[in-house]
Design brief:
Blueprint (H helix, E strand, L loop, with lengths): L8 H11 L3 H15 L5 H8 L4 H10 L8 H13 L4
Helix pairs in contact: 2-3
Length: about 90
């Protein structure tokens, strides 16, 4: 799906010049980051939407925008139990 955003021409030129990169890509990235932050996209969905090859690239993208993974103490404890079951201590 393609989405069109109505932006006055003079503002579009200013944004294109000031950003130094593709305005459409920047809009897509900002939209994607906000939708993930709001819980409307999962990490795999965001990765697919933005075309990142690796989870590591997506993590760097999110970190650069101040969006951090929802990972709490319960998640840590579950990982510790999983590792213990696999023989890691």
């Amino acid at each position: 799906m393609n989405i069109t955003l109505p932006i006055p021409d003079e503002l579009a030129r200013k944004l294109q010049t000031a950003g130094g990169s593709d305005l459409s890509r920047r809009a897509l990235e900002a939209f994607g980051a906000e939708e993930y932050r709001a819980g409307r996209l999962t990490l795999p969905e965001l990765r697919r939407m933005l075309g990142f090859d690796t989870r590591y690239a997506l993590d760097g993208f999110l970190k650069a925008r101040g969006v951090y993974l929802d990972y709490g103490v319960d998640d840590l404890e579950q990982e510790r139990r999983d590792l213990a079951q696999l023989g890691f201590r």
